[in-house]
Amino acid sequence: MHIICEKEIDAHNIIVSPRPVWKCMTCPMHGKTASCPPFVPSWREAREWICSFQKALAAKFAIDMDNYEKEKRSVSYWLLEKEKKYFNEGYLYAFALFPGNCNLCYKCEFEKTQKCAYTTKVRPSLDAIGIEINSLTRIDFTESVLYGLILID
Q1: How far lies 111's CA from each of 17, 28, 31, 134, in Å?
Q2: DSSP alpha helices (H): ranges in 1-147?
């Protein structure tokens, strides 16, 4: 995994709608991880929450599709570290959002017991709360990339 770009954006440009949530429901991990519906706020709650932010950091990561889970895990941990950096700089409400379902653990306990081993680290996925990533960037389906977002202030 390596970061292709980081871009600070106006949080008011983030579009939140039910469309990504419906797409999210087609994923085989839907309802199986703590970062997925029904265990995350609704898109309506997310839209209201995101409106309370002024800025966000959008990040694009190149990944090796042959090591997808490992690469996605690296992206999630990178986002958490960046969130922590913002927090330590005084942005108390900085909050990362994952690219897809959580895979912080190699073997997810939540799938069996609905008890998360990393309750302080798990974050909702962009799609799960209705963020239309295509409203922030042009999607090129020939690229092997993941997108993450950190709400900053």
Answers
A1: 27, 12, 9, 29
A2: 18-24, 43-50, 68-88, 110-113
Please report, for the chain, the start and end positions of each structural domain, with discontinuous segments joined by +: 2-151
* Kind plus residue range of the DSSP H or E element containing 4: strand 2-10
The answer to whether the CB of 63 falls within 8 A of the CB of 75 is yes
* Pairwise CA distance, residues 153 & 19, whole Å: 26
Residue with tokens 């239309």: 132
Tell whether pTM > 0.85.
yes
Contact 72, 59 (CB under 8 A): no
What is the tens place of the pLDDT at every residue in 93-135? 999 999 999 999 988 889 889 899 999 999 999 999 999 999 8
In terms of phi and psi (left: phi > 0; alpha: psi -120 to 50; beta: otherwise), the region of 90 is left
Q: Residue 73: what pLDDT?
A: 96
Identity at 133, one-letter amino acid code = I
